[in-house]
Structures are given as structure tokens and as C-alpha cells.
Write a structure and sequence with these properties.
Chain A: This is Autophagy protein 5. The structure holds 2 protein chains of 2 kinds. Chain A is an alpha/beta fold. Chain A is about 35% helix and about 15% strand. The two termini of chain A are about 40 Å apart. Chain B is about 15% helix and about 20% strand. The longest helix of chain B is centred in the middle third of the chain and has 11 residues, at about 80-90. The chains are: A alpha/beta, B alpha+beta. The interface of A and B includes residues 78 and 138 of A.
């Protein structure tokens, strides 16, 4: 359907206007100007910020530079979470641009993973893709692919090539004709109000009686506080890619159209802003 | 069900994030664990009936990695993969600089590395158990080199 393919493009090309500012305690030889960039929602911070790094390193001495890391309002930003997820979860209620602070010292070992190279990002990304396929197809589709197909998924993401990526990814979105959907839906639900990093459980797209499960069904089962109270004013927003899908949306459709490139639905539960 | 004889050996808890030390699985009920603030997660959403705080993990060595004498462990759900890796390294007396990776095989019967994925170091073992455990346990392979595709 043409309309549904448009959704795939809209998701892929989503951007967040961001202002990067150097942390005030970093040692510079001259004043560091902020750097503005449109960040792809579906990518990862360390994959798309080479220009940011170069910009600030120009005004610093080599000996004052170690691994770059990013922070928003005191919260270190996990590079291994997709950019759009970080924004929706932490900054969606604030005015644009997204103000991110750049650090080159005092790497927060307890909060962040190191990102030694682009290979580390690729390994993490492919690991997520494989885990998603383990849930959707018992890994059969990803394992039948050749190494060059896996590479194409990564290159498509790295080079922002929608067609290159989806030429392969569409196979990961198929399911046997006799089934009504994937085996289980790959999803992760994030909230800033709990200690747990995220909720991830086994959940089928179709009920035993053949009825398609909806987003609302999923939340009711694994995170009821997200849609509480059932009668009355809801306390939270349920956000994917910066939008609030209707709770009646079939989960299988969401998985096929609103997943991130890693094939997971990354869902943010954020408190509703009172006017 | 036949059980392997297990030693009831308590390990010192690690100070780093991840909470209490791992305990051997013994057929009898273990003595109550001392309360540890690090391992308790306030506000978790546990559906009713999900009362086990610990899950059983079976650790298997891959390649030329040393084999652990005790393979079956009861682990707090909130322990991360990184915490588990640190524990295995300590147990095997590996130096800090040696790399150790953890895999989750999808099909328990096959141990081909290229049919597995490597969970992210900050992933909780409880989540992996929910999604990829079977027969009441989570099987994880550990390996010294990055052998996966």
C-alpha cells in the first residue's frame, strides 16, 4: 500500500534539530562556538557526530581530549540507544533545539558504555537485529541471509540510504502465509520513573482466538501504569518516533512500520505535561 | 528430576553495579539472602505470579575458554550481562585486560555461534530469561574471543 510505504520513509527521515555546546569546564585555546546539526532519529549518536567532534577538537589541545560523550541536563546519553528514543524519553517536552552538552573528560563509566570505534556500533546494531529476528522468526530469516546482506543493512543505516536498507529489511518484515504475523513482537518500553532500564517480554501479535493484539493490549499486559487510569484523565503519554499512536493500532502493523532499523519498537512512556 | 550435586558455596558480593554475588543452585531452599540495596529495583512492574527474584543460568564455555567447575548459578534478575561477565572473569582468574563475551543461543540444541546474538553489556539477565529462557533456565555461552559474525 502506498500510504504504508510513506510511513516507512517518514520514520527513516525524521530529524531532530540539535545544538551541541562544549561543557564549560573543558579546556580550550579559544572560545568554542556551539554546533548545530539535524540528527537522524533512527541512528546512533556516535555514528553521526564526527563533525561535532572535529568542530570542538579544533579549539582544544590533544592532551585535553579523550573519549567524547554527550549529556542532556545532567543525564549522560547512552550512545547505544537510538537518538529518537533518547529525545522522546528525555527532551520531548522541552523547546527545540535539543541542547546537548559535549564532554571530552571524566567519562562516566557507571552510566555509559565505551564506543571505541564504528565497529562497536555495527556490532551492537547487528546484535539487536539478530535478537529481534530471534523473537520474530526464531532467527530463521536473519540466518538464511548472507554476510553481505547483513553488511547492507549496516551500510544502509550508516550512509542514510533508505532503499539500500529496506531492500534487505523487507525480508525481516515478512512472515509465513499461514501465520497472521510474527512469532513474538520485538519491543522495549522505557520510562524515566523506574530503576529498570526497559521492559521487554514475550508477546504475540495475535491472540489465541485470532484477534489481532493492539498497542493498548500490550501495555495493559506488560506496563499497565502507562495507560492508567482506564477511566479518566491519563497520566502518561505513549510515544514512538515523536508521535502518540492510537492505542487501537494493531501491534503487528506497528512492528512492521514503526520499528527502528534494529527492528525493535522502542516505546517511551512520559508523564503528561500539565498546562 | 535428577539434580547434579551442587556445592552450597556463597560468593562474596561484588561492589560494582549488579548487586549481590551469585549463589550456587542447591536442591534445598537456600538460606535467606541478606538485604542488599543495590540489587533491589524499586517500582518494578512484575505481573502477578512472577515472584522469583532469581533466575537459573547455565554457563557454557565456547572455544578455548576455560570451563567453569560450577556451571549452574542462581542470579538476581537485575544483574547485568556486564556484571555476569565480571563475575566469570574473576571466577576463572582472568586478568582485567582479557576480553570475555557472552552469547545467547536461540536454539538450545545447537551451539553454532553464528546462530546467536551477543546481548548488550547493560542488558539485565532477567529480561533475557523472560524472552529466551527455557526449561526454567537461561543458557549463556561465554567466550574469550569475538568469535561471532
Amino acid at each position: 500500500m502506498t500510504d504504508d510505504k510513506d510511513v516507512l520513509r517518514d520514520v527513516w527521515f525524521g530529524r531532530i534539530p540539535t545544538c551541541f555546546t562544549l561543557y564549560q569546564d573543558e579546556i580550550t585555546e579559544r572560545e568554542a562556538e556551539p554546533y548545530y546539526l539535524l540528527l537522524p532519529r533512527v541512528s546512533y549518536l556516535t555514528l553521526v557526530t564526527d563533525k561535532v567532534k572535529k568542530h570542538f577538537q579544533k579549539v582544544m589541545r590533544q592532551e585535553d581530549i579523550s573519549e567524547i560523550w554527550f549529556e542532556y541536563e545532567g543525564t549522560p546519553l547512552k550512545w547505544h540507544y537510538p537518538i529518537g528514543l533518547l529525545f522522546d524519553l528525555l527532551a520531548s517536552s522541552s523547546a527545540l533545539p535539543w541542547n546537548i552538552t559535549v564532554h571530552f573528560k571524566s567519562f562516566p563509566e557507571k552510566d555509559l558504555l565505551h564506543c571505541p570505534s564504528k565497529d562497536a556500533i555495527e556490532a551492537h546494531f547487528m546484535s539487536c537485529v539478530k535478537e529481534a529476528d530471534a523473537l520474530k522468526h526464531k532467527s530463521q530469516v536473519i540466518n538464511e541471509m548472507q554476510k553481505k546482506d547483513h553488511k547492507q543493512l549496516w551500510m544502509g543505516l550508516q550512509n542514510d540510504r533508505f532503499d539500500q536498507f529496506w531492500a534487505i529489511n523487507r525480508k525481516l518484515m515478512e512472515y509465513p502465509a499461514e501465520e497472521n504475523g510474527f512469532r513474538y513482537i520485538p519491543f522495549r518500553i522505557y520510562q524515566t520513573t523506574t530503576e529498570r532500564p526497559f521492559i521487554q517480554k514475550l508477546f504475540r501479535p495475535v491472540a489465541a482466538d485470532g484477534q489481532p493484539h493492539t498497542l493498548g493490549d500490550l501495555l495493559k499486559e506488560v506496563c499497565p501504569s502507562a495507560i492508567a487510569p482506564e477511566d479518566g484523565e491519563r497520566r502518561n503519554q505513549v510515544m514512538i518516533h515523536g508521535i502518540e499512536p492510537m492505542l487501537e493500532t494493531p501491534l503487528q502493523w506497528l512492528s512492521e512500520h514503526l520499528s527502528y532499523p534494529d527492528n525493535f519498537l522502542h516505546i517511551s512512556i512520559i508523564p503528561k505535561q500539565t498546562e | 528430576m535428577a539434580e547434579e550435586p551442587e556445592s552450597v558455596l556463597q560468593l562474596p558480593s561484588t561492589a560494582a553495579a549488579g548487586g549481590e554475588g551469585l549463589t550456587d543452585v542447591s536442591p534445598e531452599t537456600a538460606t535467606p539472602e541478606p538485604p542488599s540495596s543495590a540489587a533491589v529495583s524499586p517500582g518494578t512492574e512484575e505481573p502477578s505470579g512472577d515472584t522469583k527474584k532469581k533466575i537459573d543460568i547455565l554457563l557454557k564455555a565456547v572455544g578455548d575458554t576455560p570451563i567453569m567447575k560450577t556451571k549452574k548459578w542462581a542470579v538476581e534478575r537485575t544483574r547485568t550481562i556486564q556484571g555476569l561477565i565480571d563475575f566469570i572473569k574473576k571466577f576463572l582468574k582472568l586478568v582485567a585486560s582479557e576480553q570475555l563475551c557472552c552469547f545467547c543461543p536461540i536454539l538450545l540444541k545447537f551451539i553454532y555461534v553464528n546462530q546467536s546474538f551477543a546481548p548488550s553489556p547493560d542488558q539485565e539477565v532477567g529480561t533475557l530469561y523472560e524472552c529466551f529462557g527455557s526449561d526454567g533456565k537461561l543458557v549463556l555461552h561465554y567466550c574469550k574471543s569475538q568469535a561471532w559474525g
